[in-house]
């Protein structure tokens, strides 16, 4: 009976340690999937006629602010961001998703690699080029799960003050699948384009909504 009690006790301790280690690994993997040492700087609230539009709607955060943040000691990467939603069309297929305007450092900040093709270039950002890098969910919905859509042209439509407008974008690449986030959001249901393209051609604004920053170290 003494030996049996010792065996059960040791087995219980091993089981609890294994469960704790497994939970820790799962949490660490979820945190890692969001990016390394990431800080998000958001624009503030904007009020019009007494109606508060909420965080991210102020027009005071600009690309120059992102450039200034990149020069701060301890900052490794920065990416200005402007988001919208759009209806994507390819042939007879269509899909509504988030269109995330960002900069070339975004994959390094999020530890997110391109599995097909390439991410867009600094030249694409400078010229507000109509190039897109799509998530695997978008690829699956428009082209099929085994397709290589690089070089294909898709149309991205968004609602503006003048109605619905769509623009042709060349698919530059496909991001590696990240799966669901810690809150259950499909991280692969997204399209990345240069933030300047969203600003100038899709939304007609001169400000950004956020700047995503990666610190050189956790400290």
Report on this model:
The protein has helices spanning 2-34, 63-70, 106-110, 122-126, 136-142, 195-203, and strands at 38-42, 47-48, 51-52, 75-90, 93-102, 114-117, 131-134, 153-160, 163-175, 190-194, 210-215. Helices cover 31% and strands 34% of the residues. The model has no long low-confidence stretch (mean pLDDT 87). With 219 residues, it is of the alpha+beta class.
List keywords for this structure.
single chain, 219 residues, two-stranded antiparallel ribbon, 6 helices
Could you give a quick summary of the protein structure above?
The chain is α+β, with helices and mostly antiparallel strands and 219 residues long. Helix content is 31%, strand content 34%.
């Amino acid at each position: 009976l003494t030996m049996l009690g010792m065996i059960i006790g040791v087995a219980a301790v091993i089981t609890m340690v294994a469960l704790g280690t497994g939970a820790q690994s799962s949490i660490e993997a979820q945190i890692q999937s969001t990016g390394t040492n990431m800080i998000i700087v958001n624009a503030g609230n904007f009020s019009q006629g007494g109606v508060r539009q909420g965080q991210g709607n102020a027009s005071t955060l600009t690309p120059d602010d992102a450039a200034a943040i990149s020069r701060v000691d301890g900052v490794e990467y920065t990416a200005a961001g402007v988001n919208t939603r759009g209806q994507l069309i390819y042939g007879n297929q269509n899909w509504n998703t988030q269109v995330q305007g960002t900069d070339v450092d975004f994959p390094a900040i999020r530890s997110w690699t391109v599995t097909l093709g390439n991410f867009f270039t600094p030249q694409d950002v400078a010229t507000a080029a109509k190039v897109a890098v799509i998530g695997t969910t978008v690829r699956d919905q428009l082209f099929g799960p085994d397709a290589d859509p690089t070089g294909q042209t898709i149309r991205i439509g968004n609602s503006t003050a003048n109605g619905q407008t769509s623009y042709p974008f060349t698919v530059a690449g496909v991001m590696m699948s990240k799966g669901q986030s810690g809150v259950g959001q499909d991280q692969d249901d997204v399209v990345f384009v240069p933030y300047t393209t969203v600003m100038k051609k899709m939304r007609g604004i001169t400000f950004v909504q956020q700047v995503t920053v990666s610190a050189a170290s956790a400290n």
